[in-house]
């Protein structure tokens, strides 16, 4: 699959999702609602957390997990969200790290960045900065952040090795990689792998869990673990992939790793 074609398709789909969310509709990044709707991104956030957020941030949430709840963020830390979308995880992270910390959001889609900045303004949050750029080329200096989070985005990249290399670069020594993503357990049908529609819907580009661990280790990460948070069964798969046989093969997972202390 051509990387430039994939990138353009992702930008277009997520741009439309941002416009829908800005207009008060639930966003969806897949043409059939395969990401941003049940079963991938339902019931991920505690209503108590989202109650204080602008509606646009919640409607634009297209993730497969809740990395801000699982990353164990601390006061004063600097957090970077790869593929920050409408800003829900950035705004939640900003609250957790407090006024002495900071939360960056990185996104390549103009419509999502505009929505995220509008949501930041509505929320009245000052310790947040949204950056335009690619997750394969993060516009931050070396050793700039304590924690990297991401929510169902790394699987959309055509160059995941480069994403993990950049993540390692911008983390401080001892920094944490703590992302939610779609991960494959076992063999995914080739027809699904070939489908651009499924790729943009967060499935076809997902790494196999062993491969994900190898790529992290190759970039220098340690203490690597992958914890399933939601395993999609056959009924989910029918909704997700229009009947492709992926029962138990696709899962939402929380991926943890750490950059060694130097």
What does this 3D model show about the protein?
By secondary structure, the protein is α/β, with parallel strands linked by helices. Helix content is 37%, strand content 22%. The chain has eleven helices and eight strands. Strands 1, 2, 3, 4, 5, 6, 7 and 8 form an eight-stranded mixed beta sheet that branches. Helix 7 links the parallel strand 4 and strand 5. Mean pLDDT is 79; it is low at 26-42 and 236-241.
Looking at this protein, list some descriptive labels:
262 residues, globular
Amino- and carboxy-terminal Cα gap = 38 Å
Estimate the mean pLDDT confidence. 79
Radius of gyration: 17 Å
| Broad shape | globular
How many helices?
A: 11
Determine the strand fraction and express it as a percent band.
15-25%
In helices, the fraction of residues equals 25-40%
In this structure, how is the largest beta sheet organized? 8 strands, mixed
Question: Which regions contain 5 or more consecutive residues with pLDDT less than 50?
Answer: 26-42, 236-241
